[in-house]
């Protein structure tokens, strides 16, 4: 029998499924729950255990990890008679890896503490590829002792793992991350259209740009999406729209101006309005194409 902590994983989406599988590969016993039956079958097929409810998944877990889309989903799985806080054992560690508002994380930590459950907010950056390759950047908020206890688990999921401060700090840093990523993608998209309309070899141009100061992880990860117009979702526009709402609201609260970020937030929102919410966030290129007079294409 393994001496490793038993893990419950709630939320097996584009990110959650490969992350849970990486924990299984690292030797952890993982019991998962999600709403999609095919995702439960995938987990079981990769050596995990499928649960029929949140209560069943968390009952014997030492560590509960959640990865769901937004604050309402975190609240739905955490609270209430069928939720995590009512069914996890006292002393368990809850690691919420969703991207939500900092205040939601602070409130969750307070409510969980009343049940004797420890909490870390630990959102990630790196997208589907980073989840599959276990090279995610993980920004954590919470107590040092809980972070130290969680580190071996987080090391099976990511490469850069940093405690950023008290509860909610991980979410604040993630909001800043999403601001930078969205602005970077938008700049890359504008450059792609500019280069193409100028008649430059796009592949050559992006390769040389990525080798200089204009280079970035965003360009490395997304340049093939741009070149091939492949917008299969690694991180959906819908989710980035949610994240841009988080960062603009949080910035307003603390009095920080986001002049460029606010414009990009509106461009992301525009894509959703035009029906592109289910596409990868590299589909910001489609918005630039429309503004630049490209023929309309299907997603």
From TrEMBL:
Entry keyword set: NAD, Oxidoreductase
One Gene Ontology MF term: 2-hydroxy-3-oxopropionate reductase activity
InterPro entries: 6-PGluconate_DH-like_C_sf (IPR008927), 6PGD_dom2 (IPR013328), 6PGDH_NADP-bd (IPR006115), HIBADH-like_NADP-bd (IPR029154), HIBADH-related (IPR015815), NAD(P)-bd_dom_sf (IPR036291), Tartro_sem_red (IPR006398)
Keyword NAD in annotation: yes
The protein's Enzyme Commission number: 1.1.1.60
Descriptive protein name: 2-hydroxy-3-oxopropionate reductase
Entries under Gene3D superfamilies matching the protein: N-(1-d-carboxylethyl)-l-norvaline Dehydrogenase, domain 2, NAD(P)-binding Rossmann-like Domain
Family membership noted in the UniProt record: Belongs to the HIBADH-related family.
Ranges where the 6-phosphogluconate dehydrogenase NADP-binding domain occurs: 6-165
Highest taxon listed in the record's lineage: Bacteria
């Amino acid at each position: 029998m393994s001496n490793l902590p038993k893990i419950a994983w709630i939320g097996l989406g584009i990110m959650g499924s490969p992350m849970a599988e990486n924990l299984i590969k690292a030797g952890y016993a993982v019991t998962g729950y999600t709403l999609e039956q095919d995702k439960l079958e995938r987990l079981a097929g990769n050596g995990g255990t499928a649960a029929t409810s949140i209560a069943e998944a968390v009952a014997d877990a030492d560590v509960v990890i959640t990865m769901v889309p937004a604050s309402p989903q975190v609240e739905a799985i955490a609270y209430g008679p069928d939720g995590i806080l009512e069914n996890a054992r006292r002393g368990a560690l809850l690691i919420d890896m969703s991207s939500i508002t900092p205040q939601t994380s602070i409130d969750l930590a307070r409510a969980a503490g009343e049940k004797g459950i420890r909490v870390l907010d630990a959102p990630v950056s790196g997208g589907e590829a980073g989840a599959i390759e276990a090279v995610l950047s993980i920004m954590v908020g919470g107590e040092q002792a809980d972070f130290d206890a969680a580190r071996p688990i987080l090391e099976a999921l990511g490469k850069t793992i940093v405690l950023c401060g008290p509860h909610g700090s991980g979410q604040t840093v993630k909001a800043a991350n999403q601001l930078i990523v969205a602005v970077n993608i938008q700049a890359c998209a504008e450059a792609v259209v500019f280069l193409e309309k100028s008649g430059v070899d796009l592949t050559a141009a992006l390769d040389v740009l990525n080798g200089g100061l204009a280079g970035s992880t965003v360009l490395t990860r997304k340049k093939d999406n741009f070149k091939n117009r492949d917008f299969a979702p690694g991180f959906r526009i819908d989710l980035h729209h949610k994240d841009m709402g988080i960062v603009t609201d949080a910035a307003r609260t603390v009095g920080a101006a986001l002049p460029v970020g606010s414009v990009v937030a509106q461009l992301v929102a525009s894509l959703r309005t035009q029906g592109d919410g289910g596409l990868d966030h590299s589909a910001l290129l489609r918005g630039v194409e429309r503004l630049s007079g490209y023929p309309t294409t299907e997603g």
